[in-house]
Amino acid sequence: MRLPKILLTGDERLAAFPALAAEGDQPAVVGWREWAGLPGLGIGRIEAKIDTGARTSALHANSIETFEAEGLLSVRFDVTGEAENAPWHEARVADRRWVRSSNGEAELRFVIRSELQLAGQEWLAEITLTNRERMELPMLIGREALAGRVLVDAEKSWAWGKPLRRAPPKRRSPRSASRVDGQGERH
Description:
mainly beta, Cathepsin D, subunit A, domain 1, two-stranded parallel sheet, 10 strands, about 45% strand
């Protein structure tokens, strides 16, 4: 069954987006994937899937370690997709919650809070930490973080700017791939 597209106008739009009613602004329109930023974690730019079907937001985190900072539980982790020598990120743990993934599996995840930048706006969002290595994009922004802030046009992609082209990996020549032993001999 195909549902009709609904366009909110005038008072309907203001009722759906109460935060915008006071300002009189139009909500930003984002595509199904966009660049986002997490300045509270020191991540200036990360590719994210915008997913209104997911309730919570998720960030791909590797090597999650817990520690105590100022008497509060905190986590330290690195993020897939960053440069090899990128620093570890640290955040206070806001909660631990069971989250059911799109494949139906339940997982107990750390929940952190960070400023989220998207479509020229910034706000505080809750983000779960999980292994997203099988996913196309390292971050997922769910409907709780999006509600009342942006409209999603599922037909668009990179509405706020396309990703930078990545240079193809350098191929190693057979000579550079060899190793040199302690006496200067190539093997």
